[in-house]
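Annotators were shown the component list below and the corresponding predicted structure, then asked to write short factual statements about the assembly.
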Amino acid sequence: MRAIFNLALKDLLLLWRDKAGMFWVLAFPLIMALFFGSIFSGGGGSSAIGVALIDLDQSDNSKVFVEELKKSEALKVNTALGLDSARNFVRKGNLTAYILVKKGFGESTFFSRSDSGGLELGIDPSRKAEAGFLEGLITQALFKPMQQMFSDPSKTQEMIDQQMSELSDDVVAQNPELSHLKEMFANLNSFMGEVDSTELNANSPMQGPDIEVVEVSRTGDRPKSSWEITFPQSIIWALIGCAAAFAISIVIERVRGTFLRLRLAPISKMQILLGKGLACFLACVMVMIAILGFGILVFGVRIGNSLHLLLAIVASAVCFVGVMMLISVLGKTENAVAGSGWGIMLIFSMTGGGMIPLLAMPDWMVKVSHFSPVKWSILAAEGAIWRSFSFNEMLLPLGVLISIGIVGFTIGVTILSKSDG
Amino acid sequence: MITAKNIVKRFGNLTAVNDISFELKKGETFGLLGPNGAGKTTTINMMVGVLKPDEGTISLNGTADPTRPEVRMQIGNAPQSIALYEELTAVENLRFFGRMYNLSGKKLKERVEWAIEFAGLKERRNSRVNTYSGGMKRRLNLACAMVHDPPMLLLDEPTVGVDPQSRNAIFDCIEKLIREGRTIVYTTHYMEEAQRLCDRVAIIDQGRILALDTIDKLIESHGGVSVIEAELAKRPDGNLNIPGEINGTSLRIETNNTLDAINKLAAAGLDVTTLNIHKADLETVFLNLTGRSLRD
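Structure shown to annotators:
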């Protein structure tokens, strides 16, 4: 056992002194975490949706509508563009959408619809989620002029007078049903003449219920911040870096002759390979703790369950020791192992959520991700950090990770033993 | 101490070692000489148990299994390639390899100090190996094989690619080990090294031992005649009782007894202006046995 520890310590010292290796193992994963974390958290600028708003109507109602949209924090409204410019901006991706307020918009009322008026929402068809969100904001803004109209009795009376003028005796004669509507307008007009506008504003049914926005900290199965997604993702890059570095170190030892020298010492080949595995395991554990520690201290990443996280770290390290051993036998030269190793790792990472978060993956890709150790490693880490996995739920990713580790290590050691006679 | 009996090693269709047998006594320095690809390194790898012979047996100190830890403790191996950790210092390399041979504490410290002294690296003991010259690396490569104080040493071309000064320093190191009574197997294709260091030599080619004996006996049996070339001041008159052929003022004598021929030359009273003696050496033996065609 002492020989295995001595072998592992030697490898850790070699890794520590290899500046390029340390970059890929520690610095690169941190850069990835910071880069993607800042993108997803919106820390690099405004997260509001940029829209162009063109008001061709310029009526009182359209102005209220425009002002209402401008007030929205979810939108960044640009009213300085013409329709053509706005369309170009959307086409080039500089704006998410444009909203055209057509002429006649102001004449559309609660009781009648203008044929010419209305709105046009121009948006990239690939941005369906934002389109739905925008429609909601527009609908909300449309109710504002209507609410103002009903809150001011004189304006309501104006509208009723206009509607009654349209319901002339000739029109009613052709359609006797409209006489009831005309009667209702007359009663409403009379009511509006009698009400106190101040009291109406205070108790208007058109105001709708007050919406109080209360911030509620998310708990349970959602991450509190983007850092809780990007830090588990970044430890994958650290694990990949460790596995690649140690796989390459095995080839270097074989090529330089130090592996042969070790084989002539009174230790078994298994001890030599276990020493390499232990070094890789310790390196993986240390960089994972360092990166997650950085995330916890600097970016407030919460750890849902420390014991589960410890298990996730150990299982992930075991898994990538197996992956390392498997990669080390993919070639006989440093270049062959480095090339094929990083190639395979990138595929694992792409399909396993190392690049695109598992949350954002389409269904088919989620199915493919089951074959990537990266997916299970991220799932185990997220399970401990924010997914609130129970111990039973943790067992699946932990079991898969440890199984991959054992299988990979066994295959790698068997091939290495055969190839060296 | 080391006995190889009829060992054979094949790699696919290639027979790298073909029915080799030899025996080494304690304290002997044994040279394995051969061109590239002759089977020297394969033989050494079988001796230390890295490769298993397909046929025959090798025993070290009476043990047929060289992979046993107690046998390996008796062997030091300096491989042909410089098998060192370049990012570690000399002391760190020695300490690490010492630990691999179960050294620890005071004993480890003493042996590391001895090895540093042995390799002449006292001034650069704490410098990383990747800052060393080729000669320094070679000396450290040898010292790492010696750090656990083995009685038996396998040196696989230990002077490849070093300058004359470093080569001499390595010779001094090896001669010191020989004086200490260690058993050494030395592979090389530098004949002067074998001639300087080895008690006995086996000339090996295409997996077979072509000749095995002391250097003097090999020269005697495979070296051929010595050649004496003399340039005379004037062409000699009449018949003289001297061996060889005279062509103008040039005299060439081929003989198995160089001293006798020179004595006859002196007795004839000839006025010799230059005299060159080409005595058969190990290189002549080597080329006579292995041929002069290129081996790539």
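Statements collected:
1. Strands of chain A lie at 49-55, 75-78, 97-101, 119-123.
2. The two ends of chain A are 24 Å apart (CA to CA).
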